[in-house]
Amino acid sequence: MKPISDHLKEGLKVLFVGFNPSIRSAEVGHHYANPNNRFWKILFESGLTSRKYEAVEDFQLLEFGFGFTNIVERPTRAADEITKVEYKEGRERLKRKIEHFKPMVVCFVGKGVYQEYSGLKSSIPWGRQIKSVVPDTIDFVAPSSSGLVRMKVDEIVDIYKQLADLIAE
Questions:
Q1: How far, in Å, CA of 128 to CA of 69, rounded?
Q2: What is the pLDDT of residues 39-86, one digit of tens each?
Q3: Model-level pTM?
Q4: d(CA 160, CA 46)
Q5: For residues 12 and 64, what is the distance between their CA atoms, to the nearest angstrom?
Q6: Model confidence over 110-126: pLDDT tens digits?
Q7: Element (H, E) at 158
Q8: Is pLDDT above 80 for 147?
Q9: Distances (CA, A) of 33 to 22, 28, 93, 111, 144
Q10: d(C-alpha 113, C-alpha 117), whole Å
């Protein structure tokens, strides 16, 4: 399966970074397309969007300053199928994208995504990180929106509300 397209432009408010596309996302060519993924619901309920968007509308969020990419481009059924080499290459590619497009906030959709990107393995708090990997951006760590995550959706929404507050400042 081929990777899905990034949705990027300069001056984004938020660049959302996932692990990699799901098989469903690769099939339809849109981010967070698995019906069990709660991403679009979380964005709406946290106040980041004014309505619940569908995955097929992902490109429309560029108008609001929201972009999408992944640390690894290859679609898989699960993140544990990603190799160390893919993470290493993806980390460098992602860093170049962030340096080039200069988003205000980089939101890592999953603590594991941030761990792979930053190289940090110690306890990473949810929300804004003290130090960003790329200067002049803010690193923000949010829970994965996958239906496999055991956190209650209300708890996840509360963390994404912090992101909404941060970009409103």
A1: 19
A2: 999 999 999 999 999 999 999 999 999 999 999 999 998 888 999 999
A3: 0.96
A4: 6
A5: 8
A6: 999 999 999 998 889 99
A7: helix 153-168
A8: no
A9: 8, 7, 23, 20, 14
A10: 6
Number of Cα atoms under 13 Å in the Cβ half of residue 52: 7
CB 146 within 8 A of CB 37: yes
Mode of pairing for the β-strands spanning 138-142 and 127-128: antiparallel
Contact call for residues 27 and 78 (beta carbons, < 8 A):
no
Give the domains, in start order, of the chain with CATH numbers.
14-168 (3.40.470.10)
β-bridge mates for residue 18, sequence order? 70
Report the C-alpha gap between 23 and 65 in whole angstroms: 26
Tell me the Cα Rg of the chain: 14
Residue 56 near residue 28, CB atoms below 8 Å: yes
Query: What is the spatial distance between Cα 26 and Cα 8, in angstroms, rounded to a whole number?
Result: 18
The Cα 71–Cα 31 span in angstroms is 13
